[in-house]
Amino acid sequence: MLLDIVSPHTAGDPMGKHKWLNCRLADIQGRLDELGHGVSLPVIGRLLKKHDYRLRANVKQRAGEQHPDRDQQFQYIYEQRSEHQMAGYPVISTDAKKKELVGNFKNPGQIWCQEPEIVHIHDFPQDAVGRAVPYGIYDLQYNQGTVYVGQSVDTPAFAVDSIAHWCQTELPERFPHIPCLMIEADSGGSNSCRSRVWKRDLQEKVADRLGLTITVCHYPTGASKWNPIEHRLFSEISKTWAGCPLRSFDDVLHYIRDTKTQTGLTVQARLVTETYETGVKVPDQEMDALNIEYHDVCPQWNYTIRPRLNPGPR
């Protein structure tokens, strides 16, 4: 009787065990009531389980169509990283973390406490102190991270300003007098491989101003989780503030700085109050003036920017 009712609503392989229903238990209960059978929802659930029906969630396993150069790019990033590290040059992994609404709002996760934190029912932006825009830099050699917490928007200018500040303040402490720097970044977002502002600002604010030769290797689209900063820094920050409301920017900075691991990770945090603009355009003339060399391997993702002898006015 039950199988006859659910048969029209069954999807999947009729000859295998991978089956599911596109109706609710209440719909089945209503149909049974019409036939004169009063059955409770728990009983219907148990009967369905006997016939291999289960409550299941979607499973992320299909990666979709991959870029043909994906594996080659992963190998090339590893080779470039190894070459720079063997030469004693720094390798940093960069990316923007998820934006966080700052205020008395629920933060996903759980913590040990006697009483739960009381937060707003709704996450209305008008009730927020602001929105935190974290941009991170992770030093692979020294297992140290720095997060620049912006209050504006995530733009290429903000990303490069963060990298330039890191190069001026932290690079001399760990890598004094080095001529080269390697950056591993995603292919989208504020450090997009297509962004003209990203490349121009790296040229002007880092290569020309600081005299550094910068090699940039982007991860293929959809492969950001292999970027070291994601699983070595950002995931640890998320664990640190899980279940803790981010009521102020001071709280955001505190939790970031408090992030540590047994493998020796330490993290610094800096608040950035500058306002950044979106929609900035870089004309062809400025792009032609860049001292940029695209690599033979996957040139859309790999390039080196060298200091210009006469950069001209900025």
What's this model, at a glance?
The protein has 314 residues and is of the alpha/beta class.
What do you see in this structure?
The chain is an alpha/beta fold and 314 residues long. Helix content is 32%, strand content 18%. It has ten helices and eleven strands. The strands form two sheets. Strands 3, 4, 5, 6, 7, 8, 9, 10 and 11 form a nine-stranded mixed β-sheet that branches. The chain has a two-stranded antiparallel sheet with strand order 1-2. Helix 5 runs parallel beside helix 7 (196-210).
The biggest beta sheet reads: 9 strands, mixed
Oligomeric composition of the shown chains: single chain
Strand content: 15-25%
**Mean pLDDT over all positions:** 91
Principal-axis shape:
elongated
- The first-to-last residue Cα distance is 80 Å
Low-confidence stretches: none
Q: Which radius of gyration do the C-alpha atoms yield?
A: 26 Å
* Alpha-beta classification: alpha/beta
Tally the beta strands: 11
Question: What portion of residues is helical?
Answer: 25-40%
Series of H and E elements: HEEHHHEEEEHHEHEHHEHEE
> In DSSP terms, counting alpha (H) and pi (I) runs of 4 or more, how many helices?
10
